[in-house]
Amino acid sequence: MSCVLRVLTASLGAGVVAAEASPVANQCSGGSAAASCPSRGPQGVDLMQRSFVHSELAITEQLHGDYDCDGDGVQDCGKWDYGIGMCKNQAVCGHLYKFPDATLDRSCRCRKCASFPGTAFGDAMLKNPEQAGAPFNAMSWGLFKNWADHMDTCAPWVMPRDDTALQNLLAYARGKGYKVRISGAGHSAGGIVTDGQNRQVLVLSLAEYTAPGEWEFGIRDMPDGSKRATVNAGWTQFHLYEKIRPLGFFVPAQTAGYFFSLGGIVANSVHGGSYRAGFVHGYATRMRVMLFDGSIKIIDTEEEMRYWRCSFGLHGIILGVEMQLEQREQLQMYVAKDKMSAWNAEEFWKFIKQTAEADLPAEVLPAEGGQGSRKSWNGEFFVDFINGGETPQVISYSQKANHSIDPDFDGELGIPEKVHEGYAYMKNKRVAEDGRGWMTWGEAARRDGAPPIKIAGVDVNDMLDGIKALPLAGLLSKAAVEEIPGFVGRMSKRVNDGFFLTYSPAALAAAYFVEPSKAFAAMDYLRKVQLESKKSKDFVWNLPGEFRFLNVQDSAVLQPVKAGIWFNAQMISFPDLAKNDQAWKRDFKK
Fold first, then answer.
1. Separation CA 561–CA 259 (nearest Å)
2. Predicted local distance difference test score (pLDDT) of residue 66
3. Residue 301 half-sphere exposure, CB side, CA atoms within 13 Å?
4. Helices (H), strands (E): how many in the chain?
5. Which of 109, 162, 184, 515 is the most buried (most CB within 10 A)?
6. Contact 103, 78 (CB under 8 A)
7. Long-range pairs for 465-470: beta carbons < 8 A, 24 or more residues apart
């Protein structure tokens, strides 16, 4: 969450002021004047590339592993190309920031995957299709890694541009004996796309894909008067809502942030916080797909759809999706919050039922907490256990719609007058992706999920990794909760479409489905684990506990739980403050 911006800036103070302004002014547009660059913060904090005095010994020790990729004594990396906004010698060099690098040149280090001859990992056609003259029209996006950055592989990440390019890529892969894995925006759990162990694996994405006709985007009228949208599966929820929100339409279920590809969502068990809705894939009514041999098929029977929903890419490539739509004439995005007087089941359920007004049937809930209005159709809950002790702060980002809205609500309820401008502002904003130069937010969201949050031009996760010693866990958890009302208020005014996250740093996440009757026990255990971690020197939980409710429908053969109302307990944390990978993994397994 972008709350980290304020926390770290305040914690580090003058330590984030950049001394080298001239390279930064040029990097955003190939040497252009600063006036043509995207908007920035205060002058001099564009990039945390401070001047540090490095000893000759330290530089010599780094030379072989970081800059001399083949051990021949010649420095292969260590040069930044300001003209294209990435490291020179991209075949073996990439932007790999290590605190406290003084310049962009110093961050250009050897890639770990420089040489794998005779494999997909080493295939020049996959690593650089355009320059190598590949028989398919595609863009390389480097090497596959997931959004949380804990699954970093040597598998080439290729983005074909149309159906013919996809068919030619599949034919090329078959001829070489490669295995093709399919990714969305990279938010899947580690290993679902690939674990990086098989050198004959390549990963394809639809981030650059354009679909034909109505399968790029279209709206269909149904006999019952409802509407459905056909949409490119490589689009994110943002790109879909940019089209349907100005018309007053929504998908019945949605996540907190835009940055998941639609193909990835319907191929997995992705859900939001709707008390009435289940997995988003349940609202996919048709698909346009490509099979292993390049043939294209329309999936339009419920029997077949049950196999393609939540199919994890096992059947083929989902090229386009038709989604069920619903109309909301009025939408109220708001926040309910409280500092609990005591951490117990009574107060826990009182907040859910009465303060957050959750639309949950009494027969599936315990008696604690009394009765509520049930006016809210959506709720996403956050609890600051790390700072709360016996009286934690709890917050719910909630939504009401149509006749359930509060008559005295002082905020946007309809379609904002400048909704088109609001979407255009977000979509066209310029952002920098490490090692890949500048692009629009809309491009970055499709390619690998949420654009990273930057402080003084540096990825928050790189920043955290370099300052492990600071006692930041409590600050981060508190700020994550306190910033939510601001996010919600800004997005309500801008587009009022139910989403509130547009940027997010890489964070670890896990979730468990629990019967609602055991919801308090589940969160009480998470609280115990998080509070115990405060004594640890290896890993301290640093973001709030989260939970949702969802009403799962029987819509897919491979969905993880049976139909019914479920409580979803979620835990998230930055890995960067952990001593090592094993430290956070131990706590996530508890």
1. 25
2. 83
3. 3
4. 18, 25
5. 184
6. no
7. 465/99, 465/576, 466/98, 466/99, 466/100, 467/8, 467/12, 467/99, 468/576, 468/577, 468/579, 470/11
Ranges of H-type helices in 91-137: 124-127, 129-132
| Angle formed by the axes of helices 441-448 and 419-428, nearest 10° | 70
Which residues have a Cβ under 8 Å from the Cβ of 354 and sit 6 or more positions away?
369, 370, 371, 372, 373
Residue 264 to residue 280: CA distance in whole angstroms: 10
The SS3 assignment for 341 reads: coil
Q: Which of the 8 DSSP states describes residue 453?
A: P
Task: Output the pLDDT for position 392.
Answer: 97
Q: Which amino acid, residue 134?
A: A
- Residue 469: name the closest of 332, 324, 577, 327 by CA: 577
For residue 437, pLDDT over 90 is answered with no
Q: How large is the average pLDDT for residues 396-405? A: 96
- The three-class DSSP label of residue 348 is helix
Q: What is the DSSP string of 384-396?
A: EHHHHTTS-EEEE
Query: Which helix (H) or strand (E) covers residue 524, if one does?
Result: helix 519-533
- Structure tokens of 300? 């339009």
Beta bridge partners of 446: none
Q: What is the mean pLDDT of the chain?
A: 84
Neighbours of 192 (CB within 10 A): 17
Q: Which residues of 113-137 are buried (b: 16+ CB within 10 A; e: fewer)?
A: bbeeeebbbbbebbbbbeeeebebb
Enter the tokens of residue 452.
């990273």
Count, residues in the chain: 590
Global confidence as pTM: 0.82
Q: Distance (Å, rounded) from C-alpha 577 to C-alpha 574?
A: 7
DSSP 32: -
Other C-beta atoms closer than 10 Å to the C-beta of 39 total 6
> Can you tell me which residue has the tokens 């096992």?
314
Which residues, in sequence order, are CB contacts of 385 under 8 Å at separation 6+? 392, 477, 526, 527, 530, 531, 541, 544, 545
**Which residue, 500, 557, 580, is CA-closest to 279?**
557
Amino acid at 250: F
- List, in sequence order, every beta strand (DSSP E) within 52-98: 80-81, 86-87, 93-95
Closest CA to 499 of 376, 418, 378: 378
Q: Would residue 486 be called left, alpha or beta, if left means φ above 0 and alpha means ψ between -120 and 50 degrees?
A: alpha
Count of alpha carbons within 13 Å of 443, Cβ hemisphere only? 15
Q: What percent of the chain is helix, strand and coil (3-state, nearest 5)?
A: 30, 25, 45
